[in-house]
Amino acid sequence: MVSWVLTVVGVAGLIVGTAAPAHADIYRCKRADGTQHYTNIKEPGRRCQLVVRSSKKSKPTSSAKKKGSGTSSSSASRPRDPARYSRYNTLISEAARLYQLPESFIRAVMRVESDFNPTVVSRAGAMGLMQLMPRTARSMGVSDPFDARQNIHGGARYLRILANRFKGDLVLTVAAYNAGEGAVEKYKGIPPYKETQRYVRRVLKHYYAYRSESTP
User: The domain 57-214 is classified under which CATH number: 1.10.530.10, 1.10.238.10, 3.40.50.280, 3.40.50.2000?
Assistant: First the structure.
């Protein structure tokens, strides 16, 4: 299994050092050996191409449904229940340990996907906290997508599979959760979909925030 410490080296500041800015450009840079990686810092002396431009706007937007991922719930469907943001802490911790993912990462995906609403269903049929499509839910062993534990574990398991598939690249893992692994492989990086690029920015923004909150 790929270690998550290795999975995030492409995005500076995710594991060590200070937290990255909430709104950050993402570059695809080529190393001397020809390999490519993603980073939020344009590295001097390396050929870097801007692939996702930061946006100062952080309004929640309805997502266009992509393969394998759900969409953020509309503001009208969000429950007025602030306690929901901590209600699933134990389940998130459990899934994080089992699938070797940072809790802040699972939490960030859940925030963007459903805003911690366990009953939300997207127009495309994605369900629950991690917005699992029926086919994805079945393949992840989820029999009841509205059961919080099953849904969180199913989403975390899928994230782990994607992380392994993309050699631990955090950005590509997030993009694939939204657009599907086929699209990421086709474009050899973040697909040129405005929704997916916005999705990546939003997940990273929340990831940085949650990670900062958990840092002593």
Answer: 1.10.530.10
Residue 67 or residue 89, greater confidence: 89
pTM value is 0.73
Choice among 43, 94, 113, 181 that is catalytic: 113
Is residue 94 annotated as part of the catalytic site, yes or no? Answer: no
Contact (Cβ atoms closer than 8 angstroms) between residue 113 and residue 130: yes
Between the CA atoms of 102, 104, 109 and 115, what dihedral angle is there, to the nearest 10 degrees? 150
From the number of C-beta atoms within 10 Å of its C-beta (0-12, 13-18, 19+), residue 94 rates as middle
- Chain centroid to CA 101: 11
> pLDDT value at position 33?
72
Q: What residues contact residue 207 under an 8 Å CB cut-off, 6+ apart?
A: 14, 102, 104, 105, 108
Q: What is the pLDDT of residues 183-205, one digit of tens each?
A: 999 999 999 999 999 999 999 99
Tell me the average pLDDT across 21-41: 64
